[in-house]
Design brief:
The protein is α/β, with parallel strands linked by helices. The protein starts with 12 loop residues before the first helix and ends with a helix. The protein contains 11 helices and 9 strands. It has helices at about 15-20, 20-30, 70-80, 90-100, 135-140, 155-175, 200-210, 230, 250-260, 275, 285-295; strands spanning about 45-50, 85-90, 105-110, 145-150, 175-190, 190-195, 220, 240, 265-270. About 45% of the residues are buried.
Length: about 300
């Protein structure tokens, strides 16, 4: 794995948090920002919000993201690579990355609803327990992301839809990206499963696209599924494709991303585990491959 040097070391983070917590607010105020998208209109975002839902696994390793120091090293390595536009994370992770000095000129998207803990009896209750709109705006983040799982058999879904709708409206009112990640989901033998057939994803797109009082700043975050051209014809909203828990050979994953990025509504990738924990452990090489796929095209 390739790492990057930082002005502040990972070992220093706790000491700074104890003695100088004000450096976090000051750092956000001083952060160098950039336009949301560049000339090609595309984005490669590294995702790091899974741990806050208790989802630490990658492939067969159920504790892959248990070490915060290792996760931060991998994130810093990814953010140092050309073509990486930014990161998606919860406040704890983004504050660490800010202190490490790796967020200047990067997009920072705050993950908002982390209440539906993986494997819990309340997993469909996607309450907003992380970033809120006020904090996203105050810290100068570039947007907020909301997981919006839709279970027709679970009454908690309507509260999630209402909260996501309010978040879309409030983010748009501040000119910030509202990243909606919709799924039709079910519970099978006590476990939540997202439905990834084309018809279910199409239905989730229509439901997610209609949230909020305006769609002016709404982006979608969607899985790569079969018949993706038909699926993506369900929306005109700019869409970033998620990587998911990596399975199969990386070349197969890259080929699927490559084909998907030809579709007009697809404007990039939001990928975490597949880039941060590649099979050969070469974060830089995995990120460089994804960056080449995202940014070599023109809309």
């Amino acid at each position: 794995m390739t790492t990057t040097s930082n002005r502040l070391g990972i070992r220093d983070l706790t000491e700074v948090r104890v003695r100088e917590p004000q450096r976090i607010a000051a750092g956000w105020a001083a952060r160098k920002r950039r336009e949301l998208v560049g000339r090609d209109g595309r984005l490669l975002i590294v995702a790091a919000d899974h741990p806050a839902r208790g989802a630490l696994g990658v492939g067969d390793n159920r504790q892959a993201m248990a070490s915060r120091s290792e996760l931060l090293e991998r994130l810093a390595a990814a953010l140092s690579r050309p073509g990486v536009d930014g990161v998606l994370g919860t406040p704890d992770i983004l504050d660490d990355l800010l202190l490490l000095g790796v967020l200047d000129d990067k997009i920072a998207i705050g993950s908002m609803n982390r209440g539906g803990l993986q494997g819990s009896v309340f997993e469909f209750d996607d309450r907003f327990t992380a970033y809120n709109i006020t904090e996203i705006a105050a810290r100068g983040l570039d947007g907020g992301k909301m997981l919006t799982r839709i279970c027709l058999d679970d009454p908690a879904t309507v509260a999630t839809l209402e909260a996501s709708g309010h978040a879309v409206t409030q983010l748009a009112g501040r000119g910030l990206m509202a990243m909606v990640e919709p799924f039709l989901s079910v519970r099978v033998d006590g476990r939540v499963r997202n439905l990834l057939d084309p018809e279910s994803v199409i239905a989730s797109i229509h439901i997610g696209s209609g949230l909020g009082a305006t769609s002016q700043h709404t982006w979608l975050k969607l899985p790569v599924v079969d018949d993706l051209a038909r699926v993506m014809d369900a929306t005109t909203l700019p869409t970033l494709l998620l990587g998911g828990d990596p399975s199969g050979h990386p070349d197969e994953t890259y080929a699927a991303w490559d084909a998907a990025l030809d579709l007009p509504a697809v404007r990039g990738l939001v990928v975490g585990r597949a880039l941060l924990f590649p099979p050969d452990d070469d974060v830089a090489a995995a990120v460089d491959t994804a960056a080449a796929l995202v940014h070599r095209r023109r809309p």
